[in-house]
Amino acid sequence: MRPGARVLLASCAELPRSGADEDDLPDVLAGIGVTAQWAPWDDPAAAFGEADLVVLRSTWDYPLRRKEFLGWCDSVPALANPAGVARWNTDKTYLADLAERGVPVVPTELIRPGEPLRSPWPDVDFVLKPSVGASSRGAARFAPGEFDSAVAHLAGLHANDQRVLVQPYQRAVDREGETALVFFGGTYSHAFVKGAMLPDSAVPDTAPGERFGVRPDPALRRAAEDAMDAAAGLHGLRRADLLYARVDVVRGDDGAPLLLELELTEPSLGFAQADPGAKARFASAVRAALR
């Protein structure tokens, strides 16, 4: 790392200092000699082109402005994760690429604008979600008898020219949530569980999105590692070239792990649910990326 290296943590105008559990990242980075500050990605006053490294963190308005956002990514000389990864990862059709590489993913069908709803899983709850979106925005769960409501929801998404994913709902999520495994510089850091974002109203005492730290069992850890390897290989990268990643894994009906999401662009990293050393590990990964 050269003396005086400068890092910009890219956020958005609505949350210019990111979420509450990341506000102090510049202070953590300063502790190991890295100068860093927050800056909304579309701030014309921020000299992103002059930074030694720009880290995508909370650019959470990108789904509404994806073309503009990706153009900005392409303009940044030193971006983590890289612009090509962001382009691929901000459209959930990347799941098909990973499935082709042998990664067990939640079964997924794509419905393009103008195409009708088709449910390959007629006897189970299913989920519709836009292929470009974040924080479950636009996602909805439907029971087999709610086909008409699903058709109406699909029409609303298609009206905004959205491609839509349809997936069978994994019932284990209502019982045990989604396990999110976090990696820094390709190395496992910590994990947390997210409560069901689309819970079954018949399951009592569920808190949508509730989070708590967890030590994942080996099967979940292995599934996350496999997904990381496949994603890096798709882009001709080493895992260490990915500054951060969050791998969301669920269990299928047979108990085997399935990949739900692989977040390589702007995921919440669950620092509030992690051990105190997690931010230090992130800072070390940033410093390593500056070399």
TrEMBL record:
Protein name: Glutathione synthase/RimK-type ligase-like ATP-grasp enzyme
PANTHER family: GLUTATHIONE SYNTHETASE (PTHR39217:SF1), PTHR39217
Residues annotated as domain ATP-grasp: 95-291
One example GO MF annotation: ATP binding
Membrane-crossing segments per the record: none
Keywords on record: ATP-binding, Ligase, Nucleotide-binding
